[in-house]
Specification:
mainly alpha; Fumarase C, Chain A, domain 2; 2 domains; 19 helices
């Protein structure tokens, strides 16, 4: 059973304490860079590194007066220093600190989400291998189609999560950039060399170009990737919810000891976790639209992106972390009802082999339309009679003219539909 739960870690990434800590890290990194370029005396730099600190409560107290969070932060930090405080924020604008800090927060979040995705796939891989040959009916348009396996369904999800891992890895590189370029990105009061040195110390790259801010296509992509992950989780959860329906009941969420399904109906076992995942996916997907709107700002920058970003970046990151952890637990403890899979396979009395019958007739030399007509008339009769599809085929004189009885019997074998599953698993690296 999966016990790892990362939500508190994600919450810490986006809390006030970590945000201000990042701001201070950036201010110190810039001062270190300025010391290396000879603009700050080494003795003052040592005092800054040793003594620079802040209190969240003090920042909030000062902000009530300044109504400016960066200025409140700088005043609080200056109170922990002497004259060397004059070097803090030298040549910078607020967004140099805020945008670089936000990049660091997004980087930390993606690293955590990457761990979550890899853990999901460990569980999916294990369950996909366990149920590799567990035959169940495949459904298209909600209607019985042809046999698949539960393992194949889970392997498909495994492949999809692998693509999310690739997306997050690519996004990590694009999002891990800072900017220390001044009020409109021209380096008027600070040098590109200082930006590069400071960003290197912070473990990120310097943006090739910026205005007053990092351009918001990066943040829109961040929210988009999280929304795509949410969409997949919604899809996976919806499939489990459908397969848990009483009239299907092939798989279901595990029902823990002492759990209650309904205040009114004691018999209920509801797919509440999967429903929660589907519901929360709507929030993450909606937040992506905010990211798109934030790309378009006036001139070198306005403030319309700032307030919604404080909500959507933290919320989407936290929700995806939560949803991935909950989904991992669902898959890890999935209840599987094999007897119901067998019963559902038999519900259509063999009609799921109709395509194989048609193709066999074509192999015997019939035109496709003629073969289709023979199969369809027997299939339609099977829907409305007590006889099975195979019984009707064996009684069809036109069909028996082209196929022997034993050839018809061989068609109704599930192994025909499973013969290439090993190939699919090899493609996925699931051995």
């Amino acid at each position: 059973m999966i016990s790892r739960y990362t939500l508190p870690k994600m919450q810490k990434i986006w809390n006030e304490e970590n945000k201000f800590s990042k701001w201070l890290d950036i201010e110190i990194a810039v001062c270190e860079a300025l010391t290396e370029t000879g603009e700050i005396p080494q003795s003052d730099m040592e005092k800054i590194k040793e003594n620079a600190s802040f209190s969240v409560d003090r920042i909030k107290e000062i902000e009530k007066e300044t109504r400016h969070d960066i200025l409140a932060f700088l005043t609080a930090v200056a109170e922990s220093l002497g004259e060397e405080s004059k070097y803090i924020h030298m040549g910078l604008t607020s967004s140099d600190v805020k945008d670089t800090a936000r990049a660091l927060q997004m980087k930390e979040s993606l690293e955590l989400i990457l761990d979550d995705l890899q853990e999901v796939n460990q569980v999916l891989a294990r369950q996909a291998k366990k149920y590799k040959m567990r035959v169940m009916i495949g459904r298209t348009h909600g209607v019985h189609a042809e046999p698949v396996t539960l393992g194949l369904k889970l392997a498909n999800w495994y492949s999809e999560v692998n693509r999310h891992i690739e997306r997050v890895e690519q996004l990590l590189e694009r999002i891990s950039v800072g900017k220390i370029s001044g009020a409109v990105g021209t380096f008027a009061n600070i040098s590109p060399e200082v930006e590069e040195l400071a960003c290197e110390k912070l473990g990120i790259k310097a943006a090739a170009i910026s205005s007053q801010i990092l351009q918001r296509d990066r943040h829109a992509e961040y929210l988009s990737v999280l929304a795509i992950i949410a969409s997949s989780l919604d899809k996976f959860a919806t499939e489990i919810r459908n397969l848990q329906r009483t009239d299907i009941l092939e798989i279901e969420e595990s029902f823990k000891k002492g759990q209650k399904g309904s205040s009114a109906m004691p018999h209920k076992k509801n797919p509440i976790t999967c429903e929660r995942i589907s519901g929360l996916s709507r929030v993450v997907k909606a937040n992506a639209n905010v990211g798109f709107d934030n790309v378009n700002l006036w001139h070198e920058r306005d403030l319309t992106h700032s307030s919604p970003e404080r909500v959507v970046l933290a919320d989407s990151s936290t929700l995806i972390d939560y949803m991935l952890n909950k989904f991992t637990d669902v898959v890890d403890n999935l209840a599987v009802y094999e007897e119901n899979m067998d019963a559902n396979l038999a519900k259509t009395k063999g009609l799921i082999f109709s395509q194989k019958v048609m193709l066999s007739l074509v192999d015997k030399g019939l035109l496709r339309d003629d073969a289709y007509a023979i199969v369809q008339r027997n299939a339609l009769e099977a829907w409305n009679s007590e006889k099975t599809f195979k019984e009707l085929l064996l009684a069809d004189r036109e069909l028996i003219e082209h196929m022997k009885e034993e050839e018809v019997e061989q068609i109704f074998d599930y192994s025909y539909h499973l013969k290439n599953i090993d190939v699919i698993y090899q493609r996925l690296g699931l051995k």
